[in-house]
Amino acid sequence: MERIKWRDKDYERPISFKYLDEINQAFNDFFFHYSDSPILVVNASNIDFVNIPEDFEDLVNEIKRTRSGTQYYVPASSKGKGRG
């Protein structure tokens, strides 16, 4: 919701938290049972891979390391480090 508010796009303003929550739950339900390819679950809450090049590079490197099954990536927060 913060990103939607920050972008301030006309077409995104009507999107509700409830709608995003329902989409998130549908993705979680689907991928919980998915096993046809590797899955990398990324906690992107505390990084900014759009505006901070180091965050993007770290994410790309993590994707390259993903081999099989479900893996979780919880990167260190880039917020408050004086970057960006």
Question: What characteristics describe this protein?
Answer:
2 strands, 3 helices, 84 residues, single chain, 42% helix, two-stranded parallel sheet, 2 domains, mainly alpha
Fold and architecture overview:
The chain has 84 residues and is mostly helical. It has two domains: 1-33, no CATH class; 36-77, no CATH class. 42% of the residues lie in helices and 10% in strands. It contains three helices and two strands, in the order H-H-E-H-E. It has helices spanning 2-7, 17-32, 53-65; strands at residues 39-42, 70-73. A two-stranded parallel sheet has the order 1-2. The two termini are 21 Å apart.
Count of individual domains? 2
Shape: flat
Tell me the span between the first and last alpha carbons. 21 Å
Strand % is 5-15%
Poorly predicted parts:
none
Strand tally, please? Answer: 2
The neighbouring-strand order within the major sheet is 1-2
List the helices and strands and how they pair.
Blueprint: H1 2-7, H2 17-32, E1 39-42, H3 53-65, E2 70-73
Parallel strand pairs: 1-2
